[in-house]
Amino acid sequence: MQRKRSKEAFERSISTFAGGVGSAARTFPEPLFIERGEGSHVIDIDGNDYIDYVIAYGPLILGHRPKVVVEAVSAQLTKGTMFGASCELEFLVSEKVAELVPCIDLVRFTCSGSEAIHFVLRLARAYTGRPKVIKFEGHFHGWYDNIFVSVKPSPPMGLPNAPWAMRQTPGQPENVVENLIVLPWNDLQAVERTLKSQGHEIAAIIMEPIMFSNGGIGPQEGYLADLRELTSAYGVVLIFDEIVTGFRLALGGAQEYFGVSPDLCVFGKGFAAGYPISGFGGRREIMELVATNRVPHMGTFNSNPLCLAAALATLKELSKDNGRIMRYISEMGARLRSSLDGLFQEHSFPMKAVGADPIFTLISPVLDLRDYRDFLRLEFDVIHRFHGEMLDEGVWLMRRGIMMLSAAHTEEDVQLTLEAAERVMTGW
User: Fold this and answer.
1) For residue 203, which phi and psi values (nearest 5 degrees)?
2) What's the pLDDT at 26?
């Protein structure tokens, strides 16, 4: 595909727009400037049409410009965009979230996932009176200094069962790691050992229920349930970061999917089908600290009516017919995932789809991944090349191999994707 105008736009952009992109996640060797989205497709400024499995890095669970959301937001625009006061949408959306998400008794809304993470960590420390937090190597919980640690560390990284807490960028103060303990994912013994020795200092354990940031690595059988038991025994707050998995793996997120309820969770992305809103919530006794303003939660743009209108329309649509749309997304994802694996095997191609049906990751070579150290064994040049050649075939997936399904993806999209993948493998 020719992308002459995209390249020209990028060259113009970098003169005044730092790096030419609005987020580091959008940086890859070939710039892509999108003009519009239609259902499951995007069209770039050169007129190239792509089947979109990036879907804005997760939010577009209903596809581009879903009618119900467009209508809801348009109606709210006629009433106003910001009030600096309460509105009915706040309790309408909170009632729907509490109905759908198992752990939530009370909820609050923010503008971004990073904000929500920042606050639940503060809340857990306030509730327990303890300073330390356990996170897992390779898990991503936003860009704030106090948790942007050991997300993509490079060797040397410490022992496999005792990773170092490593800052991720210049500018982070050295002391951000003082109250963070980094442990390997899927190593229950490491958690038990740490809680036994330091449990009296640990406020929370936070995790992505599936480590989509690095390889789509899920929990081992029984791991989340065991963590639930351990945290309860030691009075540690269990936090699920469901920014990616919330309203995607199931209506109730990963906690419904795996049958394990945390004490607190954060959610975003698919929550409002493309509008900038996230949230956090959980057990009443913890959230009462927010409700009574003992732990103040503030923000000018919190509970923005436009975003709440989008969220309510999205949740109503996802909930219809007992989650029919969610089942459809999972079925389409299962079909695409299994068919891709079939083609990989047929062509003896060193790739495999891992994760869950609505969202999975293509890895190479075929390995059993347990933790971040296993993820580093992957051949990223193969994954990146596959991404680039699929893009030239009109199929857009994330450069790190992630593919997300939406309600707008069709059987024709799946078939065209499989045909494109076969052409790439044949010409490899």
Assistant:
1) -85, -40
2) 80
